[in-house]
UniProtKB/TrEMBL annotation:
This is Carboxymuconolactone decarboxylase-like domain-containing protein. InterPro entries: AhpD-like, CMD-like. One of its GO terms (molecular function) is peroxiredoxin activity. Pfam families: CMD (PF02627). It comes from the Bacteria. Residues 32-104 form the Carboxymuconolactone decarboxylase-like domain. Residues 1-20 are annotated as: Disordered.
Length: 171
């Protein structure tokens, strides 16, 4: 196979629905959603960091899922499209920028040592109190909890939930 060959597209996910395989997953997901929905961080900010996380880990499924969630919540196409270039995009508040910087710091290796240096923490703390910082950390963890399922199981992006996990045997 050479560099010009396209990857064969599957008609199904690699795994069947993980919630059917591990029913406790629903409880964990609901608890994470409840914890991050405590009101300390706006849902829009959580959606933005979840979208950025999906982009960072290169998961089409997560990127499309979280972009769709942001659309449903009324976010503009400009803000959604600009998440990948948030540093120079005019669409984000300083608090949102701090949250996006944190998700990048947590998810990307640092060539300079500490992933979340004091300067970044201090900047974020200018916008978020302790409860909000803990909630922000949980929101980053929430999306990261589902990253392995997205990358390993490869649910089908852009499909209704009942159709995302439709495993087809590999030949």
């Amino acid at each position: 196979m050479n560099a010009n060959t396209t990857t064969q597209r599957r008609s199904g996910s690699r795994l069947p629905n993980p919630q059917q395989l591990v029913p406790e997953l629903g409880e964990v997901g609901a608890a994470l959603f409840k914890a991050t929905g405590n009101g300390a961080i706006p849902r829009a900010t959580i959606g933005l960091i979840q979208l950025r996380a999906g982009q960072i880990v290169a998961s089409t499924y997560l990127a499309i899922l979280h972009a769709g969630n942001l659309r449903t919540a009324g976010e503009s196409e400009e803000r959604i499209a600009a998440v990948a270039t948030w540093r120079d995009a005019p669409y984000f508040t300083d608090a949102e920028r701090a949250a996006l910087a944190l998700v990048e710091a947590v998810l990307q290796p640092s060539a300079h040592g500490e992933r979340v240096p004091e300067e970044l923490y201090a900047h974020a703390a200018e916008h978020y109190d302790d409860k909000a910082m803990a909630t922000l950390a949980m929101a980053i963890g929430q999306v990261n909890f589902f990253v392995p399922l997205a990358l390993i199981g490869q649910p089908l992006p852009g499909r209704p939930p009942a159709e995302q996990w439709t495993a087809v045997p590999v030949r």
